[in-house]
Amino acid sequence: MKLHAQKSWTIQEARTEGFEDVTPQAEVSQYGVRDPQFEAHQPLLAAGGGKLGKQVITVFDSGNYAVVDYSEGNHPPAFYYSVAGYLRFVQYDSGGEFPSKSYKHCAGSLCEALGYPSGQLLTVSVAVSETESFIFDPTGRLLAHWVGSECYTSTGGSCGSRTKAR
Question: Contact, 126 vs 18, CB < 8 A?
Answer without folding.
Answer: yes
